[in-house]
Amino acid sequence: MDPAIVKQAKGSRLSEIDLVRAIAIIGVLAVHATSFSTIEMLAYPNSYSIYNFINIFLKFGTPVFIFLSSFVLFFNYYRRPMSKEMILSFYKKRLIHIIIPYLVFSTIYYLLVIVTRDPTALPPNLLYDFTAKLMTGDAYSHLYFVFISIQFYLLFPLVLWSLQRWPRYMPWIIPLGLLLQWLFVGLNEWLDIQRASSWALSYISFYMLGAYWGIRYPAIQKWTVNRQAAVSAMRKWALAAFWCLWLIAGLWHVGVWLDLRIHATVRPTYVYTLLWNIYTMLSGLLFLWAASRLIHSITPNRFWLTKMRELGALSFGIYLIHPLFLAAYRQLRPADASEMLLHLWYAGGFLLALGGSWLTVRLAHRFLPAVSSLIFGKNELPALSAHPVKSNAASTGL
User: Fold this and answer.
1) pLDDT tens per residue, the chain (398 residues)?
2) What is the pTM of this model?
3) Which GO terms are recorded in the biological process aspect for this UniProt protein (predicted)?
4) Which of 44, 119, 325, 326 has the lowest tally of Cβ within 10 angstroms?
């Protein structure tokens, strides 16, 4: 392997990853901020399609985060020799920056539910109930994502060793991921698995896609640079086709959900899952490509670019805390509000979740660095300062 590629893969921070994370967290916040609108705004049919569009079309956040997490892991670790020290270091970092924050926020949200719920509706054994929810990612609705990530971390050393040991099978990992995921979808249809979306097999195709793209990324970069002129026209047509497929799948997904919510038109479960799978897998790849091209084509020190990069770097902490802002904000819902006031209220919830969470995580990392990593995950602010805005990629290879 080219030494330059090895060096790049080991020591580089890809600025495009931060931008895609920023897009993903905006999608998550928009979906969560409009979750109540999918019921409340049914009384306003002229506006309902807009809220349905936001709530479904932007539902790429979790799959894109999983794709990026896998991408970064394999990009950083694939060219390192497997050793006991490496594995111990890997799990130590995940314990500090992922599992402990998960425990902290699971406790916070569980206590929040207890103090706001009718005492007669509480389970008889709170400790047992909390432990069960902790072990299934069910302490609050959004924490399933962290629970899924922990399952992936348990699989990571085995998958990494297998791909290092048998690299010739690497092209098959994406089909394998799709096969495993859809076998799980079929098994769920048959057995009706409880909390199926909280298990890693529901997202294994994104994990495998990220693994393949992370491992191949340096080579794809080099190949693309060397052959950019020769394949320019072909790449443009291919990109246009992929973007069209992405848009068609996304709008189709929006449409089937609109039919379900307004007209109660129920389609087979696999229709919703297939459209979501196609749309979100393409989202990860195309957003990564677009972010890379954007960084190459504009001035690096643009204010909005540095802020988007910061938003992406702080996205894990924002993901953990934003429901607290939404929960508090929803207590202020105006009674007998007009349609226009409801539009403003939903927009205000999104802006509060974004701005309040961003500011809280940023201030915690800035002024409480000793403990902030145990609450909001790894403090990425020093790394942002140390690595100027740049991209080490010419393209994602599409």
Assistant:
1) 444 444 444 445 788 999 999 999 999 999 999 999 999 899 899 899 999 999 999 999 999 999 999 999 999 999 999 999 999 999 999 999 999 999 999 999 999 999 888 887 788 888 999 999 999 899 898 999 999 999 999 999 999 999 999 999 999 999 999 999 999 999 988 888 888 888 999 999 999 999 999 999 887 766 655 555 455 677 788 889 999 999 999 999 999 999 999 999 999 999 999 999 999 999 999 999 999 888 877 776 788 888 999 999 999 999 999 999 999 999 888 888 888 999 999 999 999 999 999 999 999 999 999 899 999 999 998 888 776 665 443 333 33
2) 0.91
3) enterobacterial common antigen biosynthetic process
4) 119
207 residue type, one letter: Y
DSSP 36-101: THHHHGGG-HHHHHHHHHHHHHTTTHHHHHHHHHHHHHHHHHTTSPP-HHHHHHHHHHHIIIIIHH
The residues spanned by each domain of the chain are 3-168+217-386
CA distance 352 to 329: 8
